Amino acid sequence: MNAPRALQRHESMEIAFSRALELDRHRAAVDDAKKRAAEQRCDYQAFRQLVLGANLKPIEKSRTAAATTTSRVFHAAQSHDVQISNVAFDLRRPRASEVNGGGSLTAPSPRAPRTADEFARAWRRTCGTDDALKTQFLFDFPLDAFESVFKVEIGLDALRDFVRLIRARVERDENCVERAASILCALTRCGCFRAHLRLAGTATATAALETLRLAKPSDAVECARQAWGVAE
């Protein structure tokens, strides 16, 4: 009488164990992909693709021959007709030929957010709560876009988060300090910067200033140090 129930419990345990094992494998694969991307100093798009493809498995040998033939045809066409953009974000307005299919074969780059709301949606959708993805997104974002995207205001939470991520990145790798300083300079030109910096407190200002002190001296860096020093 109890044999069917025992068998059912055993099968349920096997399923639960398999799911837990698969989850552990997924986490390990994602962590490994993040480490490889960091070692290779990938841009944001390459970083994201490595993470998304962490669970992909090699194709079977029986499919290799067909895939090789298809790849040769694709690359032959690509070398003659298709231009692939390596730009992480595209700030230009789309051309009519791209919108209406007017014959352009250029692969469009991901369009950069144009407003603070668009940035927030892209930030949440693309990065979630992953600080590594957030940092890569922030460092790949075009410098001249910060002022236009946050023209009205840069949010208090965003300002704190940006400085935290920038400081953490510089502490891990001082080779990126010049890019970090450029981002901090760009943030000073955003709307409501001074008001929200005062609300953010001295910890945020101090973290930004510590990063700027590591950068090469320049007029832009000096202006940024003065702006960030308001709340120190």
From TrEMBL:
Quaternary state and interactors: Homodimer.
Major location category of this protein: other
Family: Belongs to the DNAAF19/PR46b family.
Taxonomic lineage: Eukaryota, Viridiplantae, Chlorophyta, Mamiellophyceae, Mamiellales
Subcellular location: Cell projection, Cilium, Flagellum; Cytoplasm
Signal sequence, start to end: none
Protein name per Swiss-Prot or TrEMBL: Coiled-coil domain-containing protein 103
Domain Dynein attachment factor N-terminal per the UniProt entry, residue ranges: 11-74
InterPro entries tied to this protein: CC103, Dynein_attach_N, RPAP3-like_C
Cellular component GO terms, alphabetical: extracellular region; motile cilium; outer dynein arm
